[in-house]
Amino acid sequence: MSLCAEELIRRLDRYELDLGLTYLDDPRLQGFNIQPLYREHHVLLALNPAQSMRKSGLTWLEIAELPLCLLTQNMQNRRLIDAAFREASIRPKVVLETDSIFALYAHVRGGLYSIVPHSMLNVFQYQSDIAAIPLYPALTRNVGLIIRRQDMLSPIQDAAWRIAQTLDLQNHFDLLIAAQIDNLRG
Asked: β-pairing, 20-23 with 140-148?
């Protein structure tokens, strides 16, 4: 289930969720235990990109005129992307919005472009006609698990927390982006 940060925190506070996955730079996370998992890097998804795009990265200015499909403006990921465009003093050409990462991918397959976290390449890695192109300056954020601070964890919370502590997601996701860069050059 995908939720905006406000809804995720609200449901954790009401004990409607056991744990959540979110960006860790949110000041509203006071009172939660945090387990960092990886540093996310955003990439441009493109269907069979032109040779001119097949370099090791694109600037925000270079992608501003592309027809973009992005998450809706209430999603934290979208707010980060909008802030990156504002920082570059440019306004992107957003032609479609959705609240589903899978819909973004479907629209990329239809010819639009999208900006997604490199962690999503794990879901899309078997599609060789879709390229993931790094963005410069990089848009990065720390991602991790959060759980409401409490005296005793439920068995599922405890198990998830212990498993999360053993994962090396950073290495896994970084290898995915490295493979994409090699494909662009090759």
From this structure: antiparallel
